[in-house]
Give the backbone structure.
Amino acid sequence: MSNPLYDALYRKHWGKSTPFLQLANGSVITHDDHLQLAAQYANLFTQLGLKPGDRLALQVAKTPQALAVYAACVQAGIVLLPLNTAYTADEVSYFVDNSGARLLLCDAHRVDELTAVAQSCGAMLESMNVDDSGSFDDKAKALSNVFDTVERTEDDLAAFLYTSGTTGRSKGAMLTQANLLSNCQALVSEWEFTANDSLLHALPIFHTHGLFVATNVALLTGCKVLFVPKFDVNDMINLMPEATSMMGVPTFYTRLLDDARFTHELAQHMRLFISGSAPLLAETHVQFESRTGHRILERYGMTETNMNTSNPYHGERRAGTVGFPLPGVEVRITDSNTEKSLPQGEIGDIEVRGPNVFKGYWQMPEKTAEELRENGFFITGDLGRIDEDGYLHIVGRNKDLIISGGYNIYPKEIELLLDEEAGVLESAVIGVPHPDFGESVVGVLVSDGQTEPDVDAIKQNIAVSLAKFKHPQKLFVISELPRNTMGKVQKNILREQYEKTFAPS
Ligand code: MCA
Ligand code: AMP
């Protein structure tokens, strides 16, 4: 039976006692351990009535078992929908309902809160615990650790990743086996990963970066993963001597630089430091090189496209740029109005095409048509230019998006909630520079002239619906929003006005 993603990432590890995951406490999970557990999970999917093509929503802590759920989904042809553990029940409800997920797998401590969500969406609910108790593991333990891999083609769906839009409603980006496979193959070859690598993995596994970039690269090569539950500077420093490489968002690098224990000596043996998901300040790049002698390799990706471009492994890693298109990926810069390609050096829309580009948004053909052209180019919403040496520079965004510590936050989603609050006529949510997270969220409210908005009460009210990383860190009340002659709110003016909100004093 052919199942291209399973064959490339997992089948070759069958029966191998090579280390896959090394945990912070030193214990090791071999490839064989991992795949036997995955097969038990796949058998449980079948027992629960899940069929190939069904969606499984996964909102659990970062554990080896969570990665085994991913492997089981690939083996059983189930479409994985990983969810940020910070999402509230309201947020989870939308994803389960919209995707039609048959099963919601959650952390045991959230069962009470999510039972009603699963019921109202017609999904089954199972739970997991970090220590492999929980209803899901209890049932799986009794089952066979051998599973007949389900046949799939490269065009079959492997995952849904939700990404918000300027309208505030999240869209399920449908990723095929070919999208994931082609991308990790390109990355392994560009970044020269081999079985001898040891990858320090502190990213969450519910987004592209930690799951499809870091984990897939490791599985494809068979290298070892130093697997820590989240970024903790002490773990990073303790484990770095055992690592050859690490991947992170810019906050990882600024936090390491803020720690005096992160020295030239500690980093000397490392082969590669990779950054992405948010802009790496040129200043961080320079500081990092002067501290460690390493130049961080910055690359550029999106949920809908996996990775698009990368600075070179050999050759100049140019600060402030995201390098060159990956093998098989085309990048062009176009004029927003005419859709025509612009001459080299000019700023325009960044568009990408290649085997990495997703199939479309789940049940949203109009949204798909707005962003994915018939000729296969995807309009990223990022603005950029290509310099005389071919390096891509991202110079801004054509979409209203805040990236805080590598997490994407869509202002519209927060504005819709703020506008509902007592005393608020209208609102604008902006991102302003933040020393730790790169950008952070600020809300600007206009009073309705009758009741003065109660900022503290508003913060508490919206917290019920929104994951913590989306909460405005500051709310300001002003008399009116700046608008242009077309009536559009001029967020650039607000961003300038509140630019220093989080500046170190
Ligand atoms: C945690 N908090 C945050 C964030 N993370 N607030 C804003 N932005 C964040 N990113 C909240 C916590 O709930 C906490 O609230 C408070 O901020 C401070 O927590 P702290 O302990 O300092 O944070 P942390 O837990 O250490 O997390 C920071 C982090 C983490 C390590 C930077 O956010 C992270 O791992 N980010 C990586 C995101 C990522 O993988 N992005 C890839 C997306 P309180 O104290 O009130 O409880 S994939 C992608 O973008 C594309 C495809 C690509 O190109 O890769
Ligand atoms: P997401 O939709 O979560 O996948 O986030 C994708 C967005 O993150 C891109 O459209 C960019 O705006 C941003 N992004 C990712 N990598 C980089 C990078 N290296 N530099 C600047 N922005 C980046």
Q: What stands out?
A: Residues 4-152 form a domain with the Rossmann fold fold (CATH 3.40.50.12780). The chain has a mean pLDDT of 96.
